[in-house]
Write a structure and sequence with these properties.
Blueprint: H1 2-28, E1 32-37, E2 41-42, E3 48-55, E4 71-85, E5 88-101, E6 105-109, E7 112-116, E8 119-123, E9 126-130, H2 141-144, E10 152-153, E11 159-165, E12 175-185, E13 191-194, H3 197-208, E14 213-217, E15 225-230, E16 233-247, E17 251-255, E18 259-268, E19 278-286, E20 290-294, E21 308-317, E22 321-323, E23 328-338, E24 354-356, E25 360-368, E26 371-384, E27 388-391, E28 397-402, E29 407-412, E30 416-420, H4 425-431, H5 436-439, H6 451-490
Length: 491
């Protein structure tokens, strides 16, 4: 018993050590965001600085730096440091905005908020005293690039933004794909980065989503580069959004030129500092306008009911040689490109030769190569009632508009069934519920009776009815006389 308690105690100690070693470091190294200002007394030839610092995390996104009345915003520079302490890695990233005054005086940085990585950070502000030109310099200023008048050049970028569609004249109900991508040539030398991608994407989708159309979204979360070739030139394609739309009516769809902002960095040409090599700029790219016309389907009695797409039929059945009364499983599958959600179960004729049970339905979609593919299964249980040879196409067929042929088409079963055994039509009638009226048959007499007997019964019933009417009339008359006599006595 003592050994068992010791083992349990050791196990608890081990789990506690694991908790301390894994959970505590994660809590201790969560990101820490700070806002700092530089020296508030500066010379006319020096810059005032506001710095955002993220410790133990990545500086992914930050809002605009505050404005200071009377001072101009100058360069923005970034820095990064990695420290190893007791086997743990500590990473710090910072971005600094410089401000420059044109004359001496006192300037005020009012209290301000900045949003960094989605978290709001506040600073109390500062009073900045700008003196005459400073003659002394910090020995580390050249390392940080503060003493130099850094010049930047803009590197020509080889990139573009595009919204494209894979079809110009789809039919009503036919899928067409809209893709929003940013393309960067393999030969590009400029440094680019995405700018507020989530916010831009939300605003752009308000403009480009077609009205009166169903959407099948590819749900792109993070753009991943794909190599493509355009007019013989290699590009990296970053898909930002992609979806297949199925228009519910004929219409003209027009998408104007859409702006898309990217971060583009200028490169320093004379900086001696390793932290002052690039300057951040925002460049706006514009897509080309896109237009397409959704056509109506050709005339057909089922024009407004049939699905639209490029489909094939696949079917399976457990056996083609059946006996009456024995069930068999049959699968009717529609597969291909199109909006499978609008495909309903086949309408089966009621001939009495088979009993068809309600199918179980399953659907699977696959998004690939700018289109949506899938399959929809209808799984039936069938019981044959009559012997014979049957073509299943007489029961299972499906009409649709074939976008490849641009005409109406029919998917028909190719299975032929051979049914043996005795007819089950009489058995079907016997099994039917005919109601409470027929439940009384066994309780009634089955003796034949003469029509004359039926007539005398009819006369007897009529006589009883007449007698009851006479009694009722006499009762009313006697009642009236008694009431009149009572009235005479009261007078």
């Amino acid at each position: 018993m003592n050994k068992l308690m010791i083992n349990r105690l050791n196990l608890k100690i081990i789990w506690f050590i694991i908790f301390i070693g894994i959970i505590i470091p994660q809590v201790a190294f969560c990101q820490e965001i700070t806002l700092q200002v530089g020296t508030t007394t500066i010379g006319l030839n020096e810059d005032f600085e506001v710095t955002v610092t993220v410790k133990d995390g990545e500086l992914k996104k930050y809002s605009d730096f505050p404005k200071i009345s009377g001072m101009d915003k100058a360069e923005i520079y970034t820095s990064q440091s990695i420290n190893f302490v007791n086997g743990q890695v500590s990473k710090t990233q910072a971005v600094t905005q410089r401000y420059r005054a044109s004359r001496q005086g006192t300037y005020f940085l009012r209290p301000f908020d900045m949003t960094v990585n989605g978290e709001k950070v506040r600073h109390a502000g500062a009073s900045i005293d700008v003196k005459g030109r400073s003659k002394t310099t910090n020995p580390f200023d050249s390392f940080w690039g503060k003493t130099e008048n850094t010049e930047y050049i803009s590197v020509k970028d080889d990139a573009f933004f595009a919204i494209t569609t894979n079809k110009q004249n789809p039919y009503v109900g036919e899928g067409f794909t809209l893709t929003m991508s940013f393309y960067v040539a393999v030969s590009n030398r400029a440094t680019l980065n995405f700018y507020e991608l989530g916010e831009q994407k939300a605003e752009i989708l308000k403009q480009i989503r077609p009205k009166n159309a169903l959407e099948e979204n590819f749900n792109i979360i993070q753009p991943v580069p794909e190599m493509v070739k355009i007019r013989g030139k290699e590009y990296r394609q970053y898909k930002v959004y992609q979806a297949v739309f199925y228009s519910l009516s004929p219409q003209e769809i027009s998408i104007p030129a859409i702006p898309f902002k990217m971060v583009k960095y200028d490169v320093a040409v004379n900086s001696q500092s390793i932290f002052n090599q690039m300057k951040e700029n925002i460049k706006t790219y514009y897509s080309e306008p896109v237009s397409l016309t959704v056509k109506a389907l050709p005339p057909h009695p089922l024009k407004d009911q049939v699905p639209v797409g490029n489909y094939i039929l696949k079917e399976q059945i457990a056996s083609k040689d059946l006996k009456t009364g024995e069930s068999v499983q049959y699968q009717f599958r529609i597969e291909g490109e199109g909006n499978l959600s609008v495909i309903e179960k086949p309408n089966l004729p009621k001939t009495g030769n088979f009993d068809f049970y309600e199918p179980t339905i399953s659907e699977m979609l696959r998004r690939n190569n700018n289109a949506v593919y899938g399959k929809k299964d209808f799984n039936y249980y069938i019981i044959p009632n009559e012997p014979g040879t049957y073509e299943m196409k007489d029961y299972f067929s499906y009409i649709f508009f074939n976008t490849k042929k641009e005409d109406y088409d029919t998917l028909s079963s190719k299975i032929k069934l051979k049914v043996t055994g005795e007819s089950r039509k009489n058995a079907s009638i016997g099994n039917a519920d005919l109601g409470s009226f027929y439940d009384r048959i066994n309780e009634e007499s089955n003796t034949l009776r003469s029509k004359n007997e039926i007539k005398w019964e009819k006369y007897g019933i009529n006589g009883i009815a007449l007698l009851l009417a006479l009694v009722l009339g006499l009762s009313v008359l006697v009642g009236k006389k008694i009431r009149q006599r009572d009235l005479d006595k009261e007078e």
